[in-house]
Amino acid sequence: PAHAKDGLLNIMAAGDMDTFNKVKPVLDEQGENVFHLGALGSGHVTKLVNNFMGMTTVATMSQAFAVAQRAGVDGQQLFDIMSAGPSNSPFMQFCKFYAVDGEEKLGFSVANANKDLGYFLEMVSDLGTESLIAEGTSKSLQAAVDAGLGQNDVPVIFDYFAKLEK
Fold first, then answer.
1. 41-164 CATH pick, 1.10.3210.10, 1.10.1040.10, 3.40.640.10, 3.30.230.30
2. pTM of the entire predicted model
């Protein structure tokens, strides 16, 4: 993705603090935000949770735009209203780029999103719990992959939801 090439990543590292401090200058060149998260494994968990939040948010917003479109609500007006309140986020912007403007800008495929949600679901299972939200989102993402949208950016799941709403 472009943000990786531009050195704008959020980097999550874990492990020994002395080692982290030695490599931090290199990490600072690769990312705009570098976080030390404690013991080994904490970075991995945090990344999976962060991706879960992002992918479920984008899927939810994409379906919201699809339902609104089906009901005859103007996408730009919906965006203006939702982005003026607590629903506003960078993910809202990404969804709007596709659902309203027809542009793919996220740079993260539906197939990769579903793969990452699979890792999140594995972690949740290993912790002895479940995530119905992640399961539902993963089913939607997998259906979009099965419909041939796997290599498209995640907000293109709007197309899958728009077909369901007919």
1. 1.10.1040.10
2. 0.83
